[in-house]
Amino acid sequence: MSRGVLAAGALLALAAAAWWAARKCSPPAAVSGRDAAVLRTLDEILRSRNDNDPRLDSGFNDLSPEARRLLRKKYAGLAPELRNERGTIVYLLGKNLSSAEDWAFLRQAAAEPPCLSLADCSKRAPMGPGDAITLAYPALVALEQAKDALRAGVSTEEARSVVEAGKSSKVPAVVEHAARIEATTKVQGPAKP
Questions:
Q1: Helices 100-110/65-77 angle, 10° precision
Q2: pLDDT value, residue 149
Q3: Stated pTM of the model
């Protein structure tokens, strides 16, 4: 085959992959206007990589059940190496805990298998300072959301189940953080006379 045919084939494959990726990221037609706007806003924030975007604190409050489902789906579709993006979604869903599915998602995030490197979660690479935290970021965010619920006295059984999932993790940073949360958020029993 000539180089031109190979190059054209490669471009066609790249265009098909881009079309497929765009199709996967766009919300389905049945999604409400508000839910579609939530997904568009999230995509903008993730593309900008701006963790301090004020919309993270205000634009994702009181998400509908469908928006939460779409965020869980988006999380599942992200490459495991996208630790910051995945942690951001855990944070947003953790602000909107109102169903068994939301808590199951947090438990799953807290118990995820280890990510061994940012280049490829399945392959160990030399780590620099702070890499252990970065690699564990989604699980650590899930634990923080559970800690907030425990301190607020909200859904304490569900929140404790997230901490338990973290304690069972194979990631030392996650296990340590879960143990710290458990030690500092013990619910006191009834006062003794």
A1: 20
A2: 93
A3: 0.78
